[in-house]
Amino acid sequence: MNIRRKFIPAAGFDIPCVTLTPANPRGSVVVIHGYGGCKEEQLGLAWRICGIGLKTFVIDLRGHGEHTLSLDHNVLQDVETSIEHGRALGKVAAVGHSLGGRLCLISSADFSIGISPALKTTYSADTRQLIDVMRGYRVRESLPGVNFEILTNLPVPHVLDTSKALLLFGSRDVPEIVASCKELKGNGAAVIEIHQALHNDIFLLEETFGHVVKKLAEWFGIR
User: Fold this and answer.
1) Would you say the pTM of this structure is higher than 0.85?
2) CA-to-CA distance for 26 and 171, rounded, in angstroms?
3) How far apart, in whole angstroms, are the C-alpha atoms of residue 206 and residue 44?
4) CATH class for domain 2-220?
5) Is 157 helix (H, G, I), strand (E, B) or coil?
6) Is-contact 180 156, C-beta < 8 A?
7) How far apart are CA 64 and CA 150, in angstroms?
8) 188: phi > 0 → left, psi -120 to 50 → alpha, else beta; which?
9) What gap in Å lies between CA 216 and CA 167, rounded to an integer?
10) Are 31 and 44 in contact (CB under 8 A)?
11) What's the rounded Cα separation, in Å, for the pair 23 and 38?
């Protein structure tokens, strides 16, 4: 496995990225952090994904980490540019947490896994305050509260095609995320509940790693 820090060229800016390349890549995966996150906190998940033979790109979204742009309504461009960059190896999957989960589920990726995806367009005052206090200090925003404006304006993802989409959420997750995932499961979506997981640790858990790599291996035909 080769690990490199690089920048993916975009239209007038670069997307910071850590690339993990196996000896014989079978496809590509873009891993996307959530609001207030960064590429470094997703490296454990990326390591596991690369370990089954998939080249993995872990990116910083704008407003986060090393990305020079502020978080704004064009954040999906970071994801789409990274997906196109990965198409040199054929099919591309996107795996994202929270805001990143929502972005990957509406992206052009061939397959998508949303981990605690922020699917709702509105959130309670308590949830908004919790996210602002616990995560907001890590983000450079174009305008205060732009995160929730972005969630309001993003398209609603279509996740009922179980051959292309998987959702995971924690039993102790954000209430709106628990509610939306359970509703989608009742409507036939592929949804897995991770027992006792919190919103901010679900992407670090062995159970999550297992479900993600199993589904990716199935999609890419890896045995």
Assistant:
1) yes
2) 33
3) 10
4) alpha beta
5) coil
6) no
7) 15
8) left
9) 13
10) no
11) 26
Written as tens digits, the pLDDT of the chain (223 aa) is 899 999 999 999 999 999 999 999 999 999 999 999 999 999 999 999 999 999 999 999 999 999 999 999 999 999 999 999 999 999 999 999 999 999 999 999 999 999 999 998 888 888 888 888 888 899 999 888 899 999 999 998 889 999 999 999 999 999 999 999 999 999 999 999 999 999 999 999 999 999 999 999 999 999 8
Give dist(CA 93, CA 214) in Å, integer: 13
CA angle 19, 212, 42 (to 5 degrees): 40
Q: Which of 6, 30, 31 is nearest to 16 (CA)?
A: 6
Nearest CA-CA partner of 80 in 157, 150, 11? 11
C-alpha–C-alpha distance, residues 189 and 160, integer Å: 4
